[in-house]
Amino acid sequence: MPVGVTAVSGDEQYAITGSPAANPLVVLVVGSDASPFAGAGVKWSVTGGGGSVSDSTSNSDATGHAQMTYTAGQSPGVATVVATVADVWTTTFTVYIEAPVNSRARLP
To answer: What are 26-83's pLDDT values in tens digits?
Structure first.
């Protein structure tokens, strides 16, 4: 039985509006002996800031890792994505959404 989930990579990254983040969101699921837990279902949801994930679920692999692709919404801001395991354990990712360079306001 899985007893925890931790964000491994993909947190605190930037994405351009309407585009996928450069790096996948990756978690590590661990079992009761603190070793990687394979086959755990991970639920992914965007809880703030808009955008979407490529699927609502993924499973941890033999090394306990599961990943997901986040695509930014159309408005600049900050998005929050939550990964949940066993309906109990959660970890949160923050993605900063920026407008494309060519559409940013230019100073005189």
So the answer is: 999 999 999 999 999 999 999 999 999 999 999 999 999 999 999 999 999 999 999 9
Residue with tokens 């965007």: 46
Side-chain-side CA neighbours of residue 5 (13 Å):
29
Number of domain units in the chain: 1
Structural domain contains residue 87 = yes
Within-domain flag for 77: yes
Question: Which residues form the domain of 15?
Answer: 2-103
Residue 94 to residue 71: CA distance in whole angstroms: 12
Domain presence at residue 46: yes
- For residues 30 and 75, the answer to whether their CB atoms sit within 8 Å is no
